[in-house]
Amino acid sequence: MTWFVYVLLNDAMVSYTGIAVDVGDRLRRHNAGQGAKFTRGRGPWRLIHTEGPLCRGDALRREAAIKADRAFKAALKTRTAT
């Protein structure tokens, strides 16, 4: 099974990073209030970045690296805001 790392952004410029097999379905679930607890009530979310396909372990490691890399997330937000 292949996994993807994704980054979402809402109108308040809050980002969320996760992994999924089907990113489109996962985005729909986040926007429907059925995603992660963090994303509930903070939408609507839009997809700003994906990486993959990766094996699950690599996707989890990349997710952790993105979450820890503030400069990377800031660059994504800046690129998206323009």
Summarize the structure in words.
- By secondary structure, the chain is α+β, with helices and mostly antiparallel strands.
- The protein has a single domain (3-81), classed as GIY-YIG endonuclease (3-Layer(aba) Sandwich).
- It has helices at residues 23-31, 56-68, 70-81, and strands at residues 3-10, 15-20, 45-54.
- Strand 1 and strand 2 form a beta hairpin.
- The radius of gyration is 12 Å and the shape is globular.
- The mean pLDDT is 94.
- In N-to-C order, the SSE pattern is EEHEHH
Examine the coordinates and then state which fold CATH places here, giving the name of the CATH topology.
GIY-YIG endonuclease
Structural class: alpha+beta
Distance from N terminus to C terminus (CA atoms, Å) equals 35 Å
Total helices: the number is 3
CATH-derived architecture: 3-Layer(aba) Sandwich
Which runs of at least 5 residues are low in confidence (pLDDT < 50)?
none
- Which percent range describes the beta-strand content? 25-35%
Give the C-level CATH assignment. Alpha Beta
Q: Average the pLDDT over all residues and give the rounded result.
A: 94
Q: Whole-number radius of gyration?
A: 12 Å
Binned, the helix content reads: 40-55%
- How many separate structural domains? 1
Which overall shape is indicated by the principal axes computed on the Cα atoms?
Answer: globular
The side-by-side strand order for the widest beta sheet comes to 2-1-3
Question: Quick one: biggest sheet?
Answer: 3 strands, antiparallel
